Structures are given as structure tokens and as C-alpha cells.
């Protein structure tokens, strides 16, 4: 009888995940550095693994783990149909960050997604190419631009880091990225559009609906979920 739960292995989400588990009566001690395994006290049969936040989203999608703590942004970006594959057990109240559409501050006439739609429509005629959006959130970007706002003329430039630098570097025109204090956007002379918040994210405890559980594991999974339900 074992249930697996993965929590982030580093950074801003790790310490708070450990604290949230402690509050739920589960004491987790990280093993030697670089080990993915931990020692768990307070709940029988729970195995807690340390993985990167983005890896946790992939493992949940694939059913390779039963539960995970990670950002809602990473879940919605990684899992094509989140409602089918994932159950949100609890929003944990930390790791707050917004996925936003940001454009150069110099674009004084562009304040809203409608304004941006006008710019995107005229972009090819004016510049000989489509509007380029730097992001690592291509799924969220496509959904927001194409489906929510009916903007079809753009090209996503995949960014693996320092996304806010892309407009100044000339590799993209605008960006979609995560922000919390907003200081990185300001430092790069970018502004968020008035209706440009795609997702308000925070850390969540989620369960995989595609992971195969043995009959005896169901009670344990329910116990874990109950400890986090608010
Ligand atoms: N200011 C912030 N900037 C970026 N992410 C933040 C911020 N605040 C909270 N988060 C959340 O932290 C998570 C990302 O954590 P982290 O960067 O450790 O993940 P990762 O993408 O797996 O890392 P990597 O792949 O670089 O090892 C996201 O869910 C994100 O929403
Ligand atoms: O709105 P802000 O508070 O400026 O945070 C936003 C920045 O933080 C993240 O980067 P990273 O994971 O490198 O985080 P860090 O720069 O905060 O360490 C994210 O990709 C932004 O670049």
C-alpha cells in the first residue's frame, strides 16, 4: 500500500510545501542532497519524492505519481485537458504569481487585448512578418490569444529563460510570462495589458486521475486529501 506525492525539490515552493505538509501532520525530511527520496513520518504508506515543479506537472499528466504540489500555471500549461487528468485537491495559499501578457511601455496606444488585436492584424502589412510572442507558456498563450480573444495572427517564439529580455534583444515583440512583484517587467520596460492576466496561479495539491491505484490505496489517498481540504 503506497501512495506517491511529489513536491518541488528546490526554490520558493520547496520550503513552503514542506511547511504545508507539516501543518497536515506529515513530517518530511529531505535525504542527502541530490537524493529524490525523503523520510516521512505521520502517515503510513505515503512516499514523498522531490522533483522539479515542471516535472511534477508532467508526472501527474502521465499518471506516474498519485499526488503533487506544483503551480497551477505549470499544470494548465502541461496537461492538455486538466479536468480529465487532474483533480485539484487544495489551493495552498503560497507561490502566488500571474501569467500575463506584457508589451513594451513605449507602445502607448496599446492598453488592452483589443488594442493588441489591432496591432497584430496590421503587423504583417507594416513589418513584413507576424507579431512574435516570447513565452514558455505556449498552450496558455494560444488559448488566450486565439480562443478567448480571436487573435490569430501571431507567432510564438519559445523562450527557455530571461523571457522579459526578448523584446529588447529583438527576438520577440511582446511576452507572456509569470510575474509576482512586477519588478522584472518594469526593469525591462514592459507593461501588463489592462485585461492581460491569463491566469492567477498559486501552488496547489493535485491528484492524478490517470494514476493506477490499488484498492487498498484509496483510503490512504482519501486521508491525504482530507488533511488538506479546507
Ligand atoms: N516570482 C515568481 N516567478 C516565477 N515563478 C513563480 C514565482 N512565484 C511563484 N512561482 C511559481 O513557481 C513555480 C516554478 O518554480 P521553479 O522555477 O522552481 O520550477 P521549474 O520550472 O520546475 O524549475 P526548473 O525547470 O527551472 O528547474 C511556478 O509554478 C510558478 O508559478
Ligand atoms: O515579478 P517578479 O517578482 O519580478 O518575478 C518574475 C520573475 O521571476 C521568475 O524568474 P525566476 O524563476 O528566475 O525568479 P527570480 O528572478 O524571482 O529568482 C519569472 O520567470 C520572472 O522572470
Automatic annotation (TrEMBL):
One of its Pfam families is HisG
Biochemical pathway? Amino-acid biosynthesis; L-histidine biosynthesis; L-histidine from 5-phospho-alpha-D-ribose 1-diphosphate: step 1/9
* Coiled-coil intervals, chain numbering: none
Keyword list (alphabetical) reads:
Amino-acid biosynthesis, Glycosyltransferase, Histidine biosynthesis, Transferase
SUPFAM superfamilies of this UniProt entry? Periplasmic binding protein-like II
Give the main EC class: transferase
Q: What is its EC number?
A: 2.4.2.17
Q: Where is the ATP phosphoribosyltransferase catalytic domain?
A: 53-226
Q: Keyword Hydrolase, does the record have it? A: no
Q: Which domain of life is it from?
A: Bacteria
What is the catalytic activity of this protein?
1-(5-phospho-beta-D-ribosyl)-ATP + diphosphate = 5-phospho-alpha-D-ribose 1-diphosphate + ATP
Q: What InterPro entries is this protein classified in?
A: ATP_PRibTrfase_cat, ATP_PRibTrfase_CS, ATP_PRibTrfase_HisG
Q: What does this protein do?
A: Catalyzes the condensation of ATP and 5-phosphoribose 1-diphosphate to form N'-(5'-phosphoribosyl)-ATP (PR-ATP). Has a crucial role in the pathway because the rate of histidine biosynthesis seems to be controlled primarily by regulation of HisG enzymatic activity.
What GO MF terms are annotated?
A: ATP phosphoribosyltransferase activity
Protein known as: ATP phosphoribosyltransferase
Family assignment from sequence similarity: Belongs to the ATP phosphoribosyltransferase family. Short subfamily.
